[in-house]
Design brief:
Layout lengths: L1 E8 L9 E9 L4 E8 L8 H7 L3 H4 L5 H12 L3 E4 L2 H14 L8 E3 H8 L8 H7 L10 H18 L9
Parallel strand pairs: 1-4, 4-5
Antiparallel strand pairs: 1-2, 2-3
Helix pairs in contact: 5-7
GO biological process, one term: DNA replication proofreading
EC number: 2.7.7.7
GO cellular component, one term: cytosol
Length: 172
Amino acid sequence: MYAIVDIETTGGVKGPTRITEIAVFRYDGRQVVDSFHSLVNPQTFIPPFITRLTGIDNRMVQNAPTFAEIADPVRNLTRDAWFVAHNVHFDYNFIKKEYEWLDEYFKRDLLCTVRLSRKIFPGFKSYSLGNLCQSLQISIKDRHRASGDAAATVRLFEMLLHHDKQRLIPVD
């Protein structure tokens, strides 16, 4: 089982930065079997450059649930699954930090679609999600939004599974 995740945030991992949006697709190796998506009230200011990138502003998240209010579905969808993301350590470390603020330990096994793509699809100039999806003809709706980027990562992961002749991706 795989939990394919994407988040949007108020900035880099270090410091008091927080999650502003999250999407999780639970994938069984053939299809998405469950999903969760939500804006998240970061309880801190969203800088203008982040708003320009994501389109998420302070007004949009003021009535959104806090991470504490959505911790249960995130925990449940990622439990007993590989935590998969494009540049996985960014997404994982943010989510891990959010659980630490709730005094909860969060540990998952990780798979990075950037690293897998470099090995399974060598030779591209760029392995950013946007450029990789363009090279592989994967359409992305709502770029730099959690649900759109996570959905594109699901399609990328499907292609990685299909082309994984070296058996780099653990299968159940």
